[in-house]
Specification:
single chain; Rossmann fold; five-stranded parallel sheet; 23 helices; 11 strands; binds 6-O-phosphono-alpha-D-glucopyranose
Length: about 550
Amino acid sequence: MAHKLASAQPSWQKLQQLYESKGKQYNLTQAFKADASRFDTYSREWKSDKVDARILLDFSKNLIDDEIFNQLLSLAQEAEVKKQIDQMFAGDHINTSEDRAVLHVALRDVEGEFKINEAGVDEVKPELEHMKRFSDAVRSGEWKGYTGKPIKSIVNIGIGGSDLGPVMVTEALKPYAKRDLDAHFVSNIDGTHMAETLRVCDPETTLFIVASKTFTTQETITNATTARDWFLEAAKDKAHVAKHFVALSTNVKAATDFGIAQENMFKFWDWVGGRYSLWSAIGLSIALVIGYERFEELLRGAHQMDLHFKNAELKDNLPVILALIGIWYNDFFGSETQAILPYDQYMHKFADYFQQGDMESNGKFITKNSERVNYHTGPIIWGQAGTNGQHAFYQLIHQGTKLIPCDFIAPVETHNRVGEHHEILLSNFFAQPEALAFGKSEDEVRAELGAQASNEFLVKSKVFEGNRPTNSIMLQKITPAALGALIALYEHKIAVQGFIWSINSYDQMGVELGKVLAKKILPLLQAKDASKVDGAGHDSSTSGLLKFYLNNAK
Ligand SMILES: O=P(O)(O)OC[C@H]1O[C@H](O)[C@H](O)[C@@H](O)[C@@H]1O
């Protein structure tokens, strides 16, 4: 593949012209008035007869018409998106900088449909069986701690991709959780995180899950060592570690060196990216919390979305549509961010999860052809659960000077029917995109204000310009399968954007430099001697900060 600059594609220039000639002054009120079937044209419903999942994507409230949409589809064709999707599913080493395949889709190919020829793929099933046996034993109480008591608390120790997925999914699927099994997630190197967690755990009934793809991550190894010390203070005998510590890793040797018994090791493979790993052994805490069967439903839901992504035509392909609309704003309107706003309390970690998923994947400036891009790549992802965001930052989305495309997500059915809460919640879910799209004109404000309309500032302050684009995504219910499909939808959206921008979405070189510098600085802090700072080769700002710290450290 040539991996051309996206801006060198013929469609890119045409999209630029379309932005100038009509995109930037596109008027949603007029567009909806002119076309009664706009919703039908720009919405797609995806369902699967294999799993309990269904997703409606309404993208009609976007600044697009047929010409723009078709031009975006041409861009996807010119970038050979279909071919790149096929390469991913075939196990080609599309992570070129690390010479690795990108096969999270193989983890959820529960029936083995994809026939991928890559070392480790045939081990997926036995590993899942291992996870099933183990999670069943812990959940049933058959697995006992060193004093013969069943496990009551699990503590997942991991960071980044070894934390965010399990946290997000266990929160999103809490209605399916075993309520008498407490789940904790410790990620931060800040000792407070571990200290506050251990405060509520009992060494006799706590299981630690050390989750690290590389098993070298400083935070995770330090936290795991602290947890082991705490455990041994009570248990005394190192042999008891085997009943209370398991490891999830691709690095079997390092996990063994840490003292994890062979049978307590759950492995995965280097073709699983950290931020795409919740489907692998990294999902063990999910299986423990919701049960293995539900975990498998999550995988099956994702797999159905994989099939849709692989097989559907570009114009009907949900991940492709989301990706193209994102590119339209990111690269032609100059939008810098993308908000993800789930109207479901259980989904409150969804935006956090895709902050890593999207920003670590597509925050890159070098193409696979070693050129520096001359366009913007990955958006800044942010958001929180509705309706909380409405009372915090929506003011800026409605009336600020920045264009912030938003994805609104909601389930038709709630897990908790409490009075009319769900109707009230959803009335907001429907109202916000409507307000953003159509706004309120000055004439409307004047008519509403009556006598007060003589106050010019009041009138102008109450105007909503509208034309602020949104996608609305509805699921039937946040079931394991539906959540699996939704996560896969966003994963593949990220993939398509990376394909079009010609970047490698599957490495993360940008996180390394800071880690290297921290390792150089740590000995200075350990030496506790401010006089050693000068001469350590740091700039005056870093040196000044270090000296301030060392002179005041207690
Ligand atoms: O799972 P681990 O090897 O411990 O890695 C944990 C995380 O740290 C790294 O710095 C990467 O930025 C993440 O992609 C990764 O998920």
